[in-house]
């Protein structure tokens, strides 16, 4: 089984989002939308690689026909309309299948939409990271596939293959972007923080708050609870308060099991966000 977590640069137009969800069909497990990020994350899964790739292609076609990057604004960094497309091997599926699916999709999107592609993770021969792709795209690094200039309406796409990870946000009940960025820097592995944690600070103008947004890319080194508790500690230490903890997408059972019951209850996280349970529930409904 393969998972594909497609990040689309649209988080405000309900009609467009509904059409994108419809395009995914049976493969859609979850959609997370953020108005301030102006971004939505579509979690797709298929019992074989072709089903997952087909759903990702359908979502790409729908987004390409409805969204123009030239009119996009949002606090989250982005390369294009169909911004990030990672493939993930689930259960006993070998990781090589995710890399093969990523390359398959990348070649298709170049042919179908003439969009430049930057490869990352296991799909990239140099195993470069997504943050590296964002920092170097069109500056010191040319696209791996496709045109050498951004598409006029679609921009570019980062396509990769990676292990399971967790994206989670901690909102701060204070309008202080400098504070969010300071805390993000303290927990970010690259700056000497927590192992396997990537983090950014964002403004949330619709809420009058700010956010520490984390990708936990190595759950064996740092658990969800460890990352969030450290951010909470730094927020409280600064004199601010935690507004909420928000998960983006779904979480593997093992990552939930590594958290204490007290943390899960306090954070509002439950078995409903389990990737495995969502897949099982879909299969039961199908039967």
UniProtKB/TrEMBL annotation:
Pfam families assigned to the protein according to its UniProt record, in alphabetical order: FTCD, FTCD_N
Statement: the UniProt record of this protein carries the keyword Transferase: yes
Coiled-coil portions: none
UniProt entry tagged with the keyword GTP-binding: no
GO molecular function: folic acid binding; glutamate formimidoyltransferase activity
InterPro entries (UniProt xref): Formiminotransferase_C, Formiminotransferase_C_sf, Formiminotransferase_N, Formiminotransferase_N_sf, FormiminoTrfase_cat_dom_sf, FTCD
Name of this protein: glutamate formimidoyltransferase
Biological source species: freshwater metagenome
